């Protein structure tokens, strides 16, 4: 079989040739079975698998509400199984060698291999070694398949639709069956079925991202995604998750820039595009005012009836967004102190990830920063490599946002990378099958791995 891989030794070394050979042998054998399945059905299976993944995120995050729990290792095993289904259903022809971009390949595999080596010397935390193996073998396999297909928008639409449809069902059920009350409030912050208001916030951030992408694509029945946006913003405000509000604001800014650059300039669709923007702005105003008030009114009314002579003790989560009288550490809920503690403890071999860090006699369970968490568990070198990987991805995102022609999948990468970068600074998101922003990031950077050729390749080699 013929592939688009040039015959020179340097390229063979730099492009993980042995790994690609392994993928070709295994996946081409799988394709002999899956090619009997119609393409439409295979896409339907990808959609259902992605919907199952998001449903699992929501179900397992509601362990305090539903009583269903699972270890991080088992979550990763289940997630890898679903990923393998997506990979198998994505193959649409015999696979050939492709050229991978050298810089991001070194950062990706370098950080993963360093973390894996460290894990052989001391525990780095339950589930993290399995996650590293998924990072080194599972996700690159998915990239390889879609690099051969070269139609990323197909996968992005299927994943965005699946996630969005699950979110639409989830938000609707929460509106009806999970009102604000004693069981769904934590310090006045709404957490719906999740164990933590910030966890609800992350789901809202991902829901905002998928809805904006599908609206930009004018996906079939895309009008329902305005309801998803309204729900995501309303629930994010009720959760008091400031990181999520920052994510939503930046997502909207990026959307308006990209949409304005490419959609409104098109004279054929100019009127329709402007109408969509008007409806989106009205949706933002509605979600920021009506939904939080509607969800809170019954809670405040009930408390007023109990405390007729007293001021209601239910505090609006909106107060968390008021910086008046607070220093930067208070605004960040003590994150500056936590970051300082973790920075002081960093070394080259890492620490036992199953034991919390104690700083000034206080237990610090998480670094509230993905890079710091990786560096604390696995050492400074993999932490630095992953930091550079994030920066490199962010530069790529900004390049897609401000330069180049319109490509339908680019907004997915722009919003997906931006979403993760913000959360990685303020939260700990290191498990792609536990934290949906991490999974989104791993999918969004897929196009970065394929080296684009400026000239047609004339030399080929049969595999």
UniProtKB/TrEMBL annotation:
Domain O-antigen ligase-related, chain residue ranges per copy: 232-387
Location within or outside the cell: Membrane
Membrane-spanning residues: 45-64, 76-92, 104-122, 128-146, 158-178, 198-215, 222-238, 244-260, 272-291, 374-395, 407-426
Matching InterPro entries: O-antigen_ligase-rel_domated
Annotated Pfam families: Wzy_C
Alphabetical UniProt keywords: Membrane, Transmembrane, Transmembrane helix
Major localisation: membrane
Membrane topology: Multi-pass membrane protein
The protein's name: Glycosyltransferase family 39 protein
Protein source organism: Anaerovorax odorimutans
Taxonomic path: Bacteria, Bacillati, Bacillota, Clostridia, Peptostreptococcales
